[in-house]
Write a structure and sequence with these properties.
Blueprint (H helix, E strand, L loop, with lengths): L8 H13 L8 H6 L7 H10 L4 H16 L8 E6 L11 H11 L3 E6 L5 H4 L1 H9 L4 E6 L11 H15 L7 E4 L18 E4 L3 E5 L5 H5 L3 E7 L3 H14 L4 E2 L2
Parallel strand pairs: 2-3, 3-4
Antiparallel strand pairs: 1-7, 2-5, 4-8, 5-6, 6-7
Helix pairs in contact: 1-4
Length: 258
């Protein structure tokens, strides 16, 4: 069986680039496969498949294009989703860090990015790929949805908490190009019984690809914690999730912070 068919879209796209214009165009080695996005646990099988079949780089590119085209019209949800687990590696799995998957989805965007997080810390490190995308694609529309929290028993006026959130965001986003930043006003109710949080964590690129995760936009969550997420692509879910939050904005259930 062709081992490429078991790989998720993000790995297939990276490998296609490697075979089309990267190091794999000239020589197929296990290190080159890993460097081009192949999961380490499958590189030996991929190498054997390519060498046994005497497949040229051009043949592999055509093969990957065929698989990717098939995924775009797939009805089997197992072909459109990728489980991402980060944490200590085990003997059976070399985990991909959340930050790597986050960056892959951000770099997919050509028209719009929508992101949400409950907690944001050291954003100048976590959010840099978004700024790079905005610099590379000036017309890129970026929507960032944050949680602005009121601690239990805090009687500070909501506008003062919002101003504090604006100042805090300026520390996490030190660049001149700015995304549109929104918050959930229900999180600021004086009455704790009425208060709610914006607890979602996700990134959506062009309503085509989304990464839903337990990881906040913090360095620990992206690089060190045990976190679980799923990437969805070539299905209706990315667009449905994006449209839900766009409708919240349209109905005034999210309000603009910046």
């Amino acid at each position: 069986m062709n081992p490429f068919v078991r790989l998720p879209v993000s790995n297939l796209e990276s490998l296609r680039t490697g075979f089309a214009s990267g190091s794999l165009k000239f020589e197929t080695t296990q290190n080159a496969l890993i460097g081009s996005g192949a999961p380490p646990e499958i590189v030996a099988e991929l190498c054997s498949f390519i060498k046994t079949g005497n497949h040229s780089s051009a043949t592999v590119v055509a093969m990957l294009d065929a698989i990717l085209d098939a995924r775009r019209y797939a009805r089997d949800v197992s072909l459109t989703q990728t489980l991402v687990v980060t944490g200590p590696a085990t003997a059976r799995m070399e985990n991909l860090k959340m930050g790597a998957r986050f960056t892959q989805v951000v770099e997919h965007a050509k028209r719009e990015l929508m992101l949400a997080t409950f907690a944001l810390y050291q954003g100048d490190k976590i959010l840099e790929p978004i700024h790079n995308a905005m610099t590379r694609i000036p017309e890129l529309q970026v929507t960032l949805i944050l949680n602005v929290a009121r601690k239990y028993g805090d009687r500070t006026q909501s506008e003062d908490l919002l101003e504090g959130a604006r100042q805090e965001f300026s520390k996490n986003w030190p660049w001149p190009l700015m995304p549109a930043v929104w918050y959930f006003p229900e999180s600021l109710h004086m009455n704790a019984m009425d208060r709610a949080s914006m607890h979602a964590k996700f990134v959506i690129a062009d309503e085509e690809r989304c990464f839903i995760t337990s990881a906040n936009f913090t360095e620990a969550a992206q690089k060190k914690n045990i976190e679980v997420g799923v990437e969805l692509g070539h299905s209706q879910e990315p667009k449905a999730l994006s449209q839900y939050f766009k409708q919240l904005i349209a109905e005034g259930k999210l309000e603009q912070l910046l």
